[in-house]
Structure prediction request, 372 residues.
Amino acid sequence: MRAVVIGGGIVGLTSGLALRRAGIDVVIHEQAPELRAAGAGLGLWANALAVFDDLGVGDRVRAIGKPGEMYFHDAAGRLLETPEFGVEDHRFLLVHRAKLTDLLADAVGRENLRLATGFAGYEEHADHVGVRLTDGSEENADVLVGADGAYSAVRGQLVPGTPVQEHLGHHAWRAVIPDPGLALTEDRLILGAHGCRGGYVRTHDGHVYWLVNQFDAPEPAGTLKQQALDRVAHLEDGGNSGVLAELIAATPEDRILHNRIMLVPPLPHWVSARVVLAGDAAHAMSPHITAGATLGIEDAALLGRLLTPAGDVPAALAAYEADRIPRYARVAELSAAVEHAPTPRQFARHYAAFSHWMMTPAHAATENPVQA
Prediction:
């Protein structure tokens, strides 16, 4: 069996690795002339690390990451406790996207990557799918995997009329910088006023990752640094977020990343007989739950389990869709509960409820209700 994967990001590379481990011949096409990892820090939860363990790269992933715990404080510096949940519901691994991308590219085999070859279209046939690429070449495969992100061209053909949508008023600013010499003794994530969240986390190599998000934000004005600093004012109430302001002030303007948050609407289907979507191409979601990459890695693992060299491709893709769509409907419900939590304390508790649910095996899922 031969698979063509479109997209050389985290999910595309993990899909390629999972399919190769299943004995399938894989080629990954990336439209950029080099592998570029958009973004900065990336949180991986236990279910993602379990996938990487199964794929034989878990130890290498942990070696480029720093263990952390996703606990929140309010703007006054008070810990927002979640006694209903255990420490395992808060633990994650912080990695740098670029380093994880390089690691996965090496694992899948760079000889299986085709750079500067974007997706142009496909034609499905009874026994194969023909894939046209932007360099004029064509590939024939048994299955086409669209892992080409929120703006997926594969989704544009498979599910027409589903362009990515702006999550109105939701913005994010972030950067990774060398330790500025502030003698940071702890990581800190803060829930403040006016829909603002922010904080900083130390990385495994001595750098610092900082971030600021805001729901229902006014249109940003000024430099990126000033935009981020304006939001920090909503995270200060006698607490420790003054450190966050110092980190932002120490960051060169060209190191600051700003994004309007974009979402993929719920899709009526993710597959056809020989085409399938994975990761953000199928379910790009708000980063406030810090789970998009982890859930996309799960998509890749499931494809690797269902697709086999001598298997029935349409049946495998139908099984994948039957598993994924209900799961992501529940993700959307839990994510909305976090987003619309009326107080920082309820935000923290709904967040812990989501991570607990996400890391509970599907066959033994138990809902842990969160009281108001």
Remarks:
- The first strand starts at residue 2 and ends at 6.
- DSSP finds eleven helices and 18 strands in the chain.
- Confidence is low (pLDDT under 50) at residues 363-372.
- Residues 313-339 form the longest helix (27 residues).
